[in-house]
Amino acid sequence: MSISSVNKSLIKDACYINGHWCQASSGQTISVYNPATGEELGQVPDMGQGEALAAIDAAQSALVSWREVTPKERARVLRRWFELILQHQEDLAHLMTLEQGKPLFETRGEVLYGASYIEWYAEEGKRAYGKLFAAPSNDKRALSIQQPIGVVAAITPWNFPNAMITRKVAPALAAGCTVVLKPSEETPYSALALMELAEQAGIPAGVINMITSSQAAEIGKVLTDDSRVRKLSFTGSTRVGKLLYSQSANTIKKLSLELGGNAPFIVFDDADLDAAVAGAVISKFRNAGQTCVCANRILVQDGIHDAFVARFKEAVEQLVVGNGLDATTTLGPVINQAAIDKIAGMVDQAQSEGATLVTGGQRHEAGKLFFAPTILTGVTQQMEIARQEIFGPVAPVIRFKDDAEAIAIANDTPYGLAAYFFTENHRRIWKVAEALEYGMIGINEGILSNEIAPFGGVKESGLGREGSSQGLEDYMETKYLCMGGIR
Known about the structure:
CATH class of the largest domain: Alpha Beta
GO molecular function: oxidoreductase activity
Number of helices: 15
Radius of gyration: 23 Å
Number of domains: 2
Enzyme class: oxidoreductase
EC number: 1.2.1.-
CATH architecture of the largest domain: 3-Layer(aba) Sandwich
Keywords: Oxidoreductase
Shape: globular
CATH superfamily of the largest domain: Aldehyde Dehydrogenase, Chain A, domain 1
Distance between the termini: 74 Å
InterPro entries: Ald_DH/histidinol_DH, Ald_DH_C, Ald_DH_CS_CYS, Ald_DH_CS_GLU, Ald_DH_N, Aldehyde_DH_dom, Aldehyde_DH_Superfamily, Succ_semiAld_DH
Structural class: alpha/beta
Oligomer: single chain
Helix content: 25-40%
CATH topology of the largest domain: Aldehyde Dehydrogenase, Chain A, domain 1
Number of strands: 22
Strand content: 15-25%
């Protein structure tokens, strides 16, 4: 299947500014490739600082009218966008597999997951309540209201090219904000297809503006320097997040940062081993290990270590590596050459430091960007592979003795996005969950993301929360009103 087999109305080779599909003024383009085959899928505009400023202009102009639209009417438009995404689920899933690589069963799931945020915020936007406070004297009344923060800049990654957009744009629009969106240059077609459906849904000109660019640093500087942009939402690496955080200081922007992770996956000796193995496989190898919340370190207690590794190896060797368009594939490619080179280097270094290869460990014959699902044992917390985000299909296993050691190893990282543990002991559940320094904890569960729950991390994994009612609040400002002269 090629990109030509996807619904033609969804294949856009132009960006969207102020209600118009347009090319880069420079005439420059970005080539987009299928990571499974190396085939060029097409080209999209490589926009620069001028187009970024034009997008901010459009968002600022549209803000005046969009924030005055009632929450009920905004909900109607968002609901229409949600319905159109569901109608085009297969096309969107195939498009995502073509440019990102993950298997079709995963991209179908991502389309539904991404759409769930639009559905949720279509309703949640109606519930931006104010408060009435007990006044200090009888002649006064004190209350607060919530208002949209203003123009929002959103920068999204390639690993979830659908859901990371909807998770930011839906609450922004529901709150009454307008958006300038820069999706990843690795996966622009999924983003532009969502933009096409947003236009079909009736979202007014200027409310969402989308620019594609390979000039990430230059575009980021425009978005952070402009005082009209009142909020920045970014999902990506901690390194880039820190840079954007610093650049936003001059204009004191509100920030949402979902950054790197180093998730521990802890298996205690009283765990249901079958459930723990299944949870580890789905957490570690979903999207070929290219998720911020995937298990990065597998911590297994002494008493069950060997039994767990044996079952884990058996399950991992059942994974089918190949092109995501093949119905039998369960593990696709990684995103690009730099990614696979990094993964291979980390595996080699771990073995040189004393880790033992259980299975995998090499590039896969399926193609240039495929890596065999890998398990390493004998890993220690001092090894590089246990301290850095792998972002690939490699599972390092660390042995531990007791609860205190597991918690100490798990928390020995500057990151704090997600953590997982498996145990049948309810007392242990509470003690461990409260001791882990992470924003999200999966307990006897390898997948934890959904639209109703607050998604985000602590420490160097970021700021703010996406999803839930908190995700809406992050796009609003609270205004206090003090009314006097009441007798």
